[in-house]
Design goal:
Layout (H helix, E strand, L loop, with lengths): L1 H15 L2 H8 L1 H31 L5 H34 L1
């Protein structure tokens, strides 16, 4: 794998030493086009996620994010309940000792 990486690096350096490639890279339109092309996978993933959420809502299903949020809330409520029970049992023990 190291030789492939070195070969690609060497080819890239050859390309960048060419004046035509340098002019192309310095062109603002080319740079914008490359940046737009690089953002396509992220936008496609966001679009797919949004569509999946729309389908889930249409079918009255919970999304993965909603389930995760609900689990977090249930854990918090369980912790609060444990604390309240501990405080109540501590108060009961204290009143029984008096």
């Amino acid at each position: 794998m190291g030789s492939l990486k070195k070969t690609l690096f060497d080819q890239g350096m050859k390309w960048f030493s060419d004046a035509r490639v340098l002019r192309l890279v310095q062109d603002e339109r080319f740079t914008k086009a490359v940046m737009a092309a690089m953002s396509v996978p992220g936008r496609a993933q966001s679009f797919a996620r949004e569509q999946a959420e729309n389908v889930a809502k249409a079918m009255a299903l919970a999304t993965q994010t909603e389930v995760k949020d609900l689990r977090r809330i249930v854990r918090q409520l369980e912790d609060e309940l444990r604390e309240l029970k501990a405080a109540e049992s501590g108060a009961n023990k204290k009143s029984a000792a008096e």
